Amino acid sequence: MEARPISTSTDMEPTLAWLIDGARSATSPEALTQQLCERLVAGGFAIWRAAVFIRTLHPSVFGRMFVWRQGEEVHVLDAPLNRVESEVFQSSPIPRVVRTGETIRRRICDPGCPADYPILADLAAEGVTDYVAAPLDFTDGARHVLTLTTKQAGGFSAVDMERIALLLPAVSRVTEVRVLRRTAVSLLDLYVGHDAGERILAGKIQRGDTEKIRAAIWLSDMRGFTRLADQAPPERVIERLNAFFDSLAQPIEAHGGSVLKFMGDGMLAIFPVRGDDSAIEARARALAAARNAVDLVASFNESDAAQPDGPLRFGLALHFGEALYGNIGGGSRLDFTCIGPAINLAARIEKVAARLGRTVLASAAFAEGLTGEFEALGAFELSGFQAPQELYGLPGEGG
Questions:
Q1: DSSP secondary-structure letter at 75?
Q2: Residue 151 three-state SS
Q3: What one-character-per-residue DSSP string does 321-368 give?
Q4: CA dist 310 to 228, 254, 291, Å?
Q5: 376, containing H or E segment
Q6: Residue 362's domain spans which residues?
Q7: Which of 170, 192, 214 is where one domain is finished?
Q8: Is the dihedral of CA 76, 78, 84, 86 positive or negative?
Q9: Are residues 91 and 221 in the same domain?
Q10: pLDDT tens digits for 270-324?
């Protein structure tokens, strides 16, 4: 049955035109939700609360909800992957809408309204009179959810329901475009790192498209991994690797570094000199991340002490220098990474750290100017380098 035309007094046309044009004035999901709701209210649609639930492609977050209330800024709620099966989530209307594609309406002000979702009681206590949860169907078959509530006497009118029917396709299209880009950004962040992801999205995708950067270089390796992989069940090996990488990647990112790649049980990261940063500031951030990582690994070992594999141990080489940063590879398979003598030197230093039983070992170029942070350990011959290299360790660390 064809919907009846809506009165021009509702002023829906400008909002629909804005959506069809891509909602260009909204540069973020929060801004899109905020501006859409404000436009609807200005056009005579008496919504009080609106929420857009978007399923995400992320290893730890199942979905994200953008919630707007009259007079408030949009706030974002994450639904962690481990809570998808929780009673709270499963007892909401959202899973049913995602599963069936139906629109769920509960006219709360009606004495006969079924109380089949716990959220209805909460909404009623806030004075809500009507609730609608409707599907946002994407062209790839994915389904997301828009919910709307009102405090209008008698709930949503017939005209309001027509407004919703008109709104859904336009909101679905503009949301799909935004979600696709956001998914691309998230996946690039996850697999190549935030900085490299931004460069790729900006068009830095030609093989050999590189630039020289100055950066503190982090190259780390888990100790005893070969024995662990040989003796422990595969599931335990993965568990230990994930705990190890968590303990290192979190402080790296927290201190402005970028993890470039995982190499078996090894990790390569950089702390580039950016903007007004000085070389010593980049090195200080890398050192702060290293100390944080040492503490996190120690905390993990305390919590994991009952396991038979022994404590996690690792070696970390810190160096500072120039490297080529960009696309390197063959044919249709590229890697966004760093190469150059500075990376090679860091790899050689990490081998010395293992030999000395040291956790953190730094080059002279890294330790320079970081007064009181390191102790000199002497000059060491490094494979592939003609001159011996002065190396430095953390004071009091024996192995």
A1: E
A2: coil
A3: EEEEEEEEEETTEEEEEEESHHHHHHHHHHHHHHHHT-SEEEEHHHHT
A4: 9, 28, 21
A5: strand 375-380
A6: 194-393
A7: 192
A8: negative
A9: no
A10: 999 987 778 999 999 999 999 999 999 999 988 887 677 788 899 999 999 999 9
